[in-house]
Amino acid sequence: MDIEKLRQLLEGIQQGQTTVEQALERLRQLPFEDLGYANLDLHRALRNGMPEVVFCEGKSIEHTTAILKRLWQYHERVMGTRVSPEMAEAIQLDIPAAHYEPLSRLVTLARGETVVLPENAPYALVVTGGTADMAVAEEAAQTLEFLGSRVQRAYDVGVAGIHRLFDRLDLLTGASVILSVAGMEGALTSVVGGLVSCPVVGVPTSVGYGASFNGLAALLSMLNSCAAGVSVVNIDNGFGAGVVAHRILQAGKTVSQPKEKA
How far is CA 246 from the centre of its chain? Predict the structure, then answer.
């Protein structure tokens, strides 16, 4: 249950449209529901602003579909990550409203119209070292968009042709947070961190030859960045980076203003 649904429930009681018994029945499943193979955290949206997201890799198709269906009963927006094409096909047969993006491997469900943000709204910029990093980058970018944040993209601007990055300098300096997605040696993140004043989230990817150790080299490089203001998520964790960037953008909206003296 999210904040809006809880508000509607309380207003229904206040207006006499919902009885106390009906409300208690709706609330009985809070804060979680035990499915036997999963305990769904139905209270998470009330605690931190977004419902539980389903990590689908490693789960059976039957369990994944059932979990998504139950969450869809309680929330206006539901997301599943790391969804294979075969799993997505099965999910869409059972839940026709499910939308699948093959590149990011995200399944999303959403009720209502998509909110169009103004062109001057603060944005997160997602940059990649190469085209091979786009799958992780799109997981991050689409997570941000799903959560309601404005996103800009600058792909294939790695340090091997650094003039490509400098050509996007206006985008870089105008961003409120930047997600730097790179494999190989992960040098892009340090360069970006040295050019901008906003927070930079390093996202190492498993792209690279043998000595990159499936992203470990990029991870260590980003963790050891000498550029200030850089934080790093785990290898290939586009979703986690997207959530961090969204919260940074949200924090900028909710900075309290000084109270006027009486």
Answer: 7
For residue 48, what are the CA distances in angstroms to 34, 104, 145, 155, 250? Answer: 21, 24, 17, 31, 12
Report CA dihedral (239, 241, 244, 245) to the nearest 10 degrees.
-110
Judged on CB neighbours under 10 Å (0-12, 13-18, 19+), 258 is: exposed
Domains and CATH numbers, the chain: 3-110 (no CATH), 123-252 (3.40.50.1970)
For the question of whether the overall pTM of this predicted structure is more than 0.85, the answer is: no
Convert the pLDDT of each residue in 57-93 to its tens digit.
999 999 999 999 988 888 888 999 999 999 999 999 9
Q: What is the tens place of the pLDDT at every residue in 149-182?
A: 999 999 999 999 999 999 999 999 999 999 999 9
Residue 200 half-sphere exposure toward CB, CA atoms < 13 A: 27
